[in-house]
Design a protein that fits this description.
Helix content is about 35%, strand content about 10%. It is α/β, with parallel strands linked by helices. It has a single domain (about 60-380), classed as TIM Barrel (Alpha-Beta Barrel), CATH 3.20.20.80. It comes from Paenibacillus kribbensis.
């Protein structure tokens, strides 16, 4: 206890006898982060995981600046394109990268040697030198975020059909794109993904971003036909409790936990079909990242005919709904850090999409700023970002 009080005094810039200590920002930042992590660990260790009883929020990294980042595939992170992406960070107001550590297929993207991970997962060594990558990120002052795709996992579903969704004949069910999913009710799936997150934190990632934290789209239409183990819990509670459990497990490591979620989830009641309750998930994370790409909204959203051609109005409308949904959560409200669009959605068809460039990207950033949202992430699946954008 005396040690904790001493650390608090240092954090406040005071010595034990009340004299001012030297103002050392790095030390104060480290102490604040350590204290926050210790307090989070203490409050979580004594609490049962319960979606209806979220723990008090304490940011494990209270001194982190506003994050403005880009998505980086593991292939880019481990290849020559990383030079261009680091140059973009160096020359602009961008300061973060979201890097695939477990990708959309379910592959672990670096050469892990963990027996626990190798038992269930399968590495694809896109990032051959993970330590070297972390050194580069640190040199360029990049805030590193590890993206982990959770319940969409074709690798794990094929390897362990019993923890996936199965057709009546026992085969692994896959969606129309050939993707397999694993069961959000299954705690073995939880622990596997959290083990990857823990290894990422050990490498030096400051934040773990969980994606596909949900059941498959349209699951409510086929849930009675598929074979899988479930509990008495609702799907939304099962998903929210995974997030709460993950944050509890990761608390001792001082990393933030963030979750990607459909942008429209802020504008509609809880999506029980896929198990995404915007409020419940948000109450249990440090950062929420709604995917508010204008191209993902259909005619009529936010009063516009073609949302993709009206990025300012679409983003502003989505943030109005996001604040309405999250303001009532009070002290449980997370940092809002949306995913925004830096790609052209030509699949929408002639007359319904805009070619995205500097104007469209800046319109989205301006809408966020007007709605008092200072953080964002840019998505481009090929990691080719628009040049000349002002990211302030």
């Amino acid at each position: 206890m005396n040690m904790i009080w001493a650390m608090m005094l240092i954090a406040l810039g005071m010595s034990g006898n009340g004299e001012q200590t030297a103002n050392i920002p790095s030390l104060k930042d480290a102490v604040a982060t350590t204290l926050g992590s210790a307090m989070i660990q203490a409050q979580h260790s004594s609490m049962k995981v319960d979606a209806s009883n979220p723990p008090v929020k304490l940011d494990p990294q209270p001194t982190t600046p506003a994050i403005k980042g880009i998505y980086v595939t593991a292939y880019s992170a481990g290849g020559s394109r990383m030079n261009q992406l680091l140059d973009l960070i160096d020359k602009t107001e961008l300061n973060a990268m979201v890097i695939d550590i477990k990708d959309d297929a379910g592959y672990i993207t670096y050469p892990t040697t963990s027996p626990e991970l190798l038992k269930l997962g399968k590495p694809q060594k896109f990032i051959r030198d993970i330590s070297g990558l972390m050194d580069r990120l640190k040199k360029h002052k990049v805030y590193p975020i590890a993206r982990i795709v959770v319940f969409k996992d074709t690798v794990l579903a094929n390897k362990n059909p019993e923890i996936s969704f199965r057709n009546p004949d026992g085969s692994v069910w896959k969606n129309g794109k050939g993707d397999g999913f694993v069961n959000p009710y299954n705690k073995e799936v939880w622990d596997y993904n959290i083990a990857i997150a823990k290894e990422a934190a050990q490498f030096g990632f400051k934040e773990i971003q969980f994606d596909y934290v949900r059941f498959p789209e349209g699951f409510e239409k086929r849930s009675d036909k598929l074979k899988y183990t479930k509990s008495e819990q609702s799907r939304s509670n099962a998903v929210a409790e995974f997030v709460q459990y993950a944050r509890k497990q990761l608390a001792p490591m001082g990393v933030r936990v963030s979750v990607d979620i459909f942008g429209y989830a802020a504008s509609v009641p809880a999506a029980e079909g896929i198990g995404q309750d915007f409020t419940k998930i948000s109450e249990n994370v440090d950062v929420i990242s709604p995917m508010v790409y204008p191209s993902h909204y259909t005619t009529g959203w936010f009063g516009v005919q073609d949302p993709d051609k009206n990025p300012y109005q679409t983003i502003k409308g989505s943030m109005v709904d996001t604040h309405k949904k999250l303001d009532p959560t009070g002290k449980l409200k997370p940092i809002i850090r949306p995913w925004i669009q830096d790609f052209t959605a030509s699949w929408l068809g002639s007359g319904h999409y805009a070619k995205y460039g500097k104007i469209q990207v800046e319109d989205q950033i301006r809408a966020l700023k007007d709605m008092k949202v200072d953080e964002y992430l840019l998505w481009n699946a090929t990691n080719r970002y628009t040049s000349g954008v002002t990211y302030k």
